[in-house]
Amino acid sequence: MSATGKPVWSRREAAALIDAAGTDEAVWQAANLQGTLPRLRVPKGPVVVVAAHPDDEVLGCGGTVATLLTAGVPVHTVCLTAGEASHGTGNAGAMARLAEQRGKELTDALRALGTLPDAVHAGLPDTRLDRHEEDARAVIAEVLAHTGAALCLAPWEGDLHSDHEAAGRAARRAGVDRGVTVWTYPVWMWHWARPGDPRVPWHRAGVLPLTRDGLDRKRAALACFTSQLEPRGPEQDAVLPPQELAHHTRTYETVMR
User: What ranges make up the beta strands (E) of the chain?
Assistant: First the structure.
């Protein structure tokens, strides 16, 4: 436990939770979060969406992005790493090819969401983002300033994935630097947590309802990430199997304020 009484998770413990069998989406549906959590309104003005890896932004808030674009709200995206380590780190050539593929997938996915600028790519190392938080903070702060952002959406800093947590911390600090509101979105939390889980700050949670078109566009964007949807090898499942995608194709998205 930390001095604040919150659990401190090692990388090994966090990885074990993510690799274990996850919570079925039916459990989350039965919890009726959309009916129990506050409904939030996005502040007026440009929105910047931060991702640790290509696909995080779509998984966490792709429907919100699509809905905002339809309403004429400017949206900008920042991708901190190329996601080159999602299939392992033993082959540098394979990692470079995967980085290129994931970059193309992200471009296609953003186009599926609507008309928005290409992502800003920070080029920081996948799986080691926690060692480069200040670099991430600087990149995010620059984009917030350049776009005149009213809101920043970033991965939740309690997601039990070190890159997601580092991205969330960096975004929170960049928001303080630039006076911009930051909300964070969970990605892996739906896998390892359960309704009412004490590790989740439910008092800070709120939902962003999606339009039908926003959800449809999100589904189309998710389909672009073939590297994450197909098995990684003969004995390796996909990073995002159907049961995981089910958490991210609800009629609402969830953020921590």
Answer: 47-51, 75-81, 120-124, 151-155, 181-185, 205-209, 252-256
> Which of 220, 212, 173, 168 lies closest to 189, judged by CA?
168
Q: Which residue has the tokens 């969830």?
A: 254
Mean pLDDT of 168-180: 98
Enter the tokens of residue 100.
Answer: 């290129």
**Contact assessment for residue 177 and residue 201, using Cβ atoms and an 8 Å cutoff:** no
Task: Please report which confidence band the pLDDT of residue 88 belongs to, taking 50, 70 and 90 as the band edges.
Answer: confident
| Report field, pTM of the whole predicted structure over 0.90 | yes
Angle made by CA atoms 121, 66, 164, in degrees to the nearest 5: 45
The order of strands in the sheet holding 252-256 is 120-124, 75-81, 47-51, 151-155, 181-185, 252-256, 205-209
Query: DSSP alpha helices (H): ranges in 54-132?
Result: 56-70, 92-113
- Distance, CA of 177 to CA of 200 (rounded, Å): 26
Q: 198-236 pLDDT, tens per residue?
A: 999 999 999 999 999 999 999 999 999 999 999 887 778
Q: How far apart are CA 117 and CA 12, in angstroms?
A: 37
State percent of the chain over pLDDT 70. 94
Contact indicator for 173, 137 with CB cutoff of 8 Å: yes
DSSP label of 158 = T
pLDDT digits (tens, 9 = 90+) for 13-26: 666 777 778 999 99
Distance, CA of 164 to CA of 188 (rounded, Å): 9
